[in-house]
Structures are given as C-alpha cells and as structure tokens.
Amino acid sequence: MEEKLNKVLEAFTKDLEGANDLAELENLRIKYLGKKGEVTSLKKSIAKLPKEEKPKAGKLINQTSSKIEESLAKKNEEIKAILLEKKVKEETIDVTAHFDKYESGHFAVINQTMEELESIFQNMGFDVIEGPEVDTVKYVFDDLNSPKDHPARSTSDTFYINEDVLLRPHTSSMQIRVMKEGKLPIRMVSAGRVFRNDEVDQTHSPMFHQLECLVVDEKVSMANLKATLETFIKEMFGEDMNLRYRPHHFPFTEPSLEVDVTCPVCKGEGCSSCGNTGWSMELLGGGMVHPKVLEACGIDSEKYTGFAFGLGVDRIAMVKYGLDDIRLLYDNDKRFIEQF
Ligand code: DAH
C-alpha cells in the first residue's frame, strides 16, 4: 500500500507542476480525491486487506489525501495571486492620460460681469447686498412712488404671483428694503435677476439682470452721482469710454436721467450698429432719490438727499464683449460659453 501511495503522490506532484489555472486544479482534485479518484479507489481497497494491516493503511491513505489537499490549496492561492497581479497590471489607470482634454467649468459671462461690477463698487466703499427675486407690490411700486394706476404695474409688464406679490421687475425694491432698515448713511449696490413680461428680441429678454445703486446722506448731490458713474464706467470699460446723459422720467427720482456710453463697435465714429449716433443702447437709469420715496421710508428729506441708479448687467456685458444679441447670454451654446 505504501508503495502504491508513493507512486500516486509522485504522479500527483508531476501533474500539479503542469497545472496552470483553476480549472486544471479542479480536474486534478477529481482525478485524485474525487469519487472515482485514485486515492479514493485505494481507500476502497482497504476492505480487502487483512484485518491487522487495515489501520496502518487507513492512516497512510489519510495522510496522502491531506498532503494532496494541502498542495492543491497552496497551488490555488498561487494561481489566484498570479491572476490578480495580471489583472491589476492590465487595469492600471494612467492618470496622466488625456490630461489636456480635461475640461473645467467656469462662471457664466453674466456672473463674471456681476462680480466685476460688485468688486468695482466694493472698492469705492459700497456695501454689496443680496435681495429676493420675488417681492411685494408695496416695495416694488407703492413705496417707489409708483401709484396704483402707474403703467409699469400693468400685467402686460409684470409677472404677478397674486395681487400683492410679484417677480420683481427691477432691483429698485432693494432701495426700499435698505432705507427701511433705518441705518444712515447708505452706500449700497445690489445685483440680481429681474423679470418682465417682455417680448424677446436682440436687446430684450423676459429675465435679465440689474445692479441697483443707492447713496443716501447729508448733502448728496447730482455731482456725486456723475462722479460715481464716471468712475465706474471708466473702471469697467477703460479711460476712453465717454458717457452721455439724457433727461428722462422715473417716478422714484427727480430729476431723472438715462445714460449711454460710447458705441463699442465704432468707438463713437458712427456705424450701423449704433444707428450712426456713436452711442450705445441705454445702459442705465438714475437720478436724485424723490423726496416722497425718502419720506415713505421714514427718512427726513429736508436733512437727507440721495442718488440712485439701476443698470442693465446684460447690456454692460454686451458692450464689454461686443455682443450683438442678448440671447447669446442664455442660449448655453458651448461655442459661445467657451470663449470666456
Ligand atoms: N428701475 C429702473 C428700471 O428698471 C431703473 C432705475 C431708474 C433705477 C432710476 C434707479 C433709478 O435706481 O434711480 O428701468
């Protein structure tokens, strides 16, 4: 029996050396330890041995099958390790591959412009304030001296949530919010989205952006308004940008004005995009805060005066980057967005 077992073990060892994958190992297990395997048949043959030889033969057979099992398990681990190493090598990720194709996002032009404007005013000592896009009729119209029959309140101009609440059609409601806080003097800007029931065209959109500016203090004059506007326009567009003031009417300022700047396309020479005037489209409206507005906010209009203006951020971006259509700012066309 011992001899037979040694031969089996020898044959197994040879077979094991040639086995290279898990399937071959399984075949070897069946060949030697399976139901009809070589060790199993020897085990069965014990029955035919003389009684006194049986225990020794049994012990030897068990030792052999343990050895075979151990060798199989060891080889199994080895093969698995080799397979894993191979897999890891094959799956190695080259973190530098396609590195220059990696695209990172950036702020949209409108947000870039809004931040630039805010930082210009911040440098001039203004506070930057955020306000709600949905506001009350009182803040948006009543307290801004725009009474019930004012045309701007019409549903054809404005999106109403209900009779008293609406999407703000301008950022001027922020003037009221700040003045009602009661802290004087005031020097603030507030930028954000505004909404109007407007037809879309090259220069209009039902949603656009404004930046509101308000200064209230003793002895604030039109000269302060002009100086502030000129400083900011030159900071934003460069020294050779000129401003044109036109008289206008707003219910919340008296006197009121509108401002255009040098046409960015022809630099003032006159061209088709400015209708040969040499001036841009209207960029902002402003004026001296109407005494009625100050009084509505509990501010003594005999002692305090103020100026205010609201500018179109989208139009500022159009002038700055020479865009001829406001829709470019909202179309999400990657060819456009990627240029900024
Ligand atoms: N709210 C005005 C508009 O949307 C712009 C404006 C005009 C703002 C005069 C002001 C101002 O602060 O004083 O057309």
Task: Set down the secondary structure blueprint.
Elements: H1 2-18, H2 22-33, H3 38-45, H4 54-90, H5 109-123, E1 127-128, E2 134-136, H6 137-140, E3 165-167, H7 173-180, E4 186-195, E5 207-217, H8 222-237, E6 243-250, E7 253-261, E8 284-289, H9 291-296, E9 305-312, H10 313-321, H11 334-337
Parallel strand pairs: 1-4
Antiparallel strand pairs: 2-3, 4-5, 5-9, 6-7, 7-8, 8-9
Helix pairs in contact: 1-4, 2-4, 5-10
The protein binds 3,4-dihydroxyphenylalanine.
| First-residue to last-residue Cα separation | 87 Å
Number of E-type strands: 9
Give the structural class. Answer: alpha+beta
Contiguous low-pLDDT stretches (5 residues minimum) are none
The protein's oligomeric status is single chain
Number of helices: 11
Sheet with the most strands, sense and barrel status: 7 strands, mixed
**Small molecules bound:** 3,4-dihydroxyphenylalanine
**Helix amount, in percent?**
40-55%
Whole-angstrom Rg? 42 Å
What is the residue-mean pLDDT, rounded to a whole number? 93
General form: rod-shaped
- Percent strand: 15-25%
| Helix/strand order, N-terminal first | HHHHHEEHEHEEHEEEHEHH
Q: Strand arrangement, largest sheet? A: 1-4-5-9-8-7-6
Description:
- This protein is an alpha+beta fold and 340 residues long.
- The strands form 2 sheets. The protein has a 7-stranded mixed β-sheet, sandwiched between helices. The chain has a two-stranded antiparallel sheet with strand order 2-3.
- The model has no long low-confidence stretch (mean pLDDT 93).
- Strand 6 and strand 7 form a beta hairpin.
- It has 11 helices and 9 strands.
- It has helices at 2-18, 22-33, 38-45, 54-90, 109-123, 137-140, 173-180, 222-237, 291-296, 313-321, 334-337, and strands at residues 127-128, 134-136, 165-167, 186-195, 207-217, 243-250, 253-261, 284-289, 305-312.
- The structure holds 3,4-dihydroxyphenylalanine.
